[in-house]
Amino acid sequence: MSLTHWLVVAVLVLLLFGRGKISELMGDMAKGIKSFKKGLAEDDDVAEGMSQNRGGQTIEHRQDAQARTGVGANDVHKS
């Protein structure tokens, strides 16, 4: 595509939307990107806080859970 083609497209876009509308759209897009980045940062802070709260937690296992090797393991011995 030539330079003339891109100039014609740019002029048509300016005529259809006007200068104010394009700058308004770009401003809205910038606000959306900023809020997206802020949301990602907040999610990281929440996840970090949750991992710090779980520091000393232990998990207890039941004794009978160690005896089972899988689903249907008892059925194999019934011959």
Kindly describe this structure.
This protein has 79 residues and is mainly α. The chain contains three helices and no strands. It has helices at residues 3-53, 63-67, 73-76. The protein is rod-shaped, with a radius of gyration of 31 Å. The relative contact order is 0.05.
Helix content percent band: over 70%
Instruction: Output the radius of gyration.
Output: 31 Å
Count of DSSP helices?
3
**Uncertain spans:** none
Oligomer status: single chain
Structural class: mainly alpha
Mean pLDDT: 77
Q: Tell me, what's the shape?
A: rod-shaped
Strand content: under 5%
Q: Please trace the helix and strand order, writing H or E for each element.
A: HHH
- How many beta-strand runs? 0
What is the first-to-last residue Cα distance? 77 Å
For the largest beta-sheet, the strand count, sense and barrel status come to: none
Short description:
It is built from 3 helices and no strands. It has 79 residues and is an all-alpha fold.
Question: What keyword list fits this structure?
Answer:
0% strand, 79 residues, 76% helix, single chain, mainly alpha
Secondary-structure blueprint of this entry?
Blueprint: H1 3-53, H2 63-67, H3 73-76
